[in-house]
Amino acid sequence: MQNLDVANMQGMGKDNWIKFKLNRSYENPWPDVEVEAHLRPLEPSEIVSWETAAENVALDIASKYDNLYVAMSGGIDSEFVAKTFHKLDIPFTPIIFELEDVNALDVWWAFKWCKDNNIKPKVVNIDVETWIKRWIGISIEYCGRFGAGNGTLSYLYDYARENNGYLVTGAGFPEFFPDENLDYMTLRYIDTALHNIDGTKKFGFLIHEPDIIQHMMYPEMPFNFLSWTPEIVLSYVYHRDMNLNSAENKARIMSCLPRPKNIGIGDYFFRNHPILKRWLQLRRYIGTSEVAYIGSREEIIKILTTGKYD
Amino acid sequence: MTESFNLSFYFTANWWNDNPPEYSISIDDKCLRKEVFKIKQEVVGIEVPVTIESGPHQLKIRYENKKNSDIYYLPNQNILRENFFTLIKFSVDTVDCVNLHKKEGYYKRDFPDKQGNLIYKNNGIFLHSGEYILNFYSPIHYWLLSKFDKTY
DSSP letters along A203-251, please? Predict the structure, then answer.
């Protein structure tokens, strides 16, 4: 991969520092690397506390974008984003997606946070059948193995656009593999970006395909709070306790109550809905990877503390 | 690049004389299977393994043996009954394509009808001597994804 090729890629985050590309397409169904993401910091970063890194992100986003919306799914990531803006008295509107009552148990946490902090959220309520067709349409357009997350967020991005605003989310978070939350990438299929040719697992961080697709769809949005700067990515990677799983780390680092996720739209729903069942069967044949592997803990710390990359 | 997959077809057939419908399944001009229906009005499933190169292809299902004697005409020349078979649905590997064959394919008669038409939009029913044609490309699962919203 030539550096010029990477430099010319679309980017996400402050100064577009994370370069990315979705190579899988109808014209190129079997690329060597389906989803690419490259860390390209402009300068070295210091290792700072997670709180400091997050506050710096919030202040930077607020200095560049006004009329902010924060997508709150009920998960720890988005609650932390909202909490950070709120702590700094940066005005924003929480925006919550309701899928009839299917995800009520998830978004309960989002409504609770809003109520506890006396902030009125904007609620976008979509019926199930419309939602399904929206996100399958995204999967069709981008040749994507994913759909639900992008479909959900697309309604919130659209609302922000229509109201001259900017949506910030808890997406774009660099997750660690292997992790029990990501076991399906070994058990249900073998993600080729996360396994070596001999089938052994790689140990390192990844960015999910839906994060990349949503930024392709809405490039003007500062969506990836949790990877907005090299500093915040470095802080998480450095402070992550490798003896705990990702859920435990997030709850600890972000000081949010741990909670189950996506219990409202579980596998059973996907396996039994007549359209989703067929799409689930089909997507297994589309490509072999759902992530971009960005490097091991040591590699990422080296890149971000030196500002140098190969 | 070559890919391999299984096509599964589900048919029913009906006939009134001793000439049950015979059909063949081809990819492009290569015949993969030839069958004769043996049981009336029951759903019959067959699986056909396929190996093809990347690029455009045609699936063809041909009604091989339709004859004029398979049609029973009334004295006023209206048709009382005739032999036919129906493609209910097809699948690619485990992926049910539902009614995609109706939305995407067409039927090409061997002889024009009274209005001079040779091509029919397909409704899954094989009434006339001729063949059903479905244009697709390999990799077929990508083609299916591109057409997925037509299967609702």
Answer: -EEEEEHHHHHHHHH-TT---BGGGSSHHHHHHHHHH--TTS-HHHHHH
Place of tokens 């006939």: B15
* B96, B89 Cβ separation under 8 angstroms: yes
Average pLDDT estimate for B59-70: 96
- Mutate which: A28, A128, A138, A285, vs B, most B CBs within 10 A: A285
| Average pLDDT of the residues of chain A | 94
Spacing of C-alpha A3 from chain mean position: 25
Q: What is the DSSP letter of A166?
A: E
Q: What is the pLDDT of residue A259?
A: 79
Give bridge partners of residue B79 from the DSSP assignment. Answer: B73
Indicate which of B95, B137, B144 best probes the interface with A, i.e. most A CBs within 10 Å of its own CB.
Answer: B95
Three-state SS across chain B? CEEEEEEEEEEEEECCCCCCCEEEEEECCEEEEEEECCCCCCCEEEEEEEEEECEEEEEEEEECCCCHHHEEECCCCCEEEECEEEEEEEEECCEECCCHHHHHCEEEECCCCCCCCCEEECCCEECCCEEEEEEEEECHHHHHHHCHHHHC
Specify the 3-state DSSP secondary structure of A169. strand
Cis peptide before B21 (omega within 30 of 0): no
Cβ of residue B96 closer than 8 Å to a chain A Cβ:
yes
Residue A161 has pLDDT above 80, yes or no: yes
- The pLDDT, as a whole number, for residue A261 is 67
- pLDDT at residue A111 in the model: 97
Mean pLDDT, to the nearest integer, of B121-147?
95
Query: Which of A30, A275, A282 minimises the CB distance to B152?
Result: A275
- Contact residues for B87 (Cβ-Cβ < 8 A; gap 6+): B9, B10, B11, B61, B101, B124, B126, B132
Helix (H, G, I), strand (E, B) or coil at A82: helix
- Distance from C-alpha of A60 to C-alpha of B145, rounded to nearest angstrom: 40
pLDDT at A145 over 60: yes
- A169: number of Cβ within 10 Å: 27
Residue with tokens 């591109």: B146
Please compute Rg for chain B using Cα positions.
16
CB atoms within 10 A of CB B112: 10
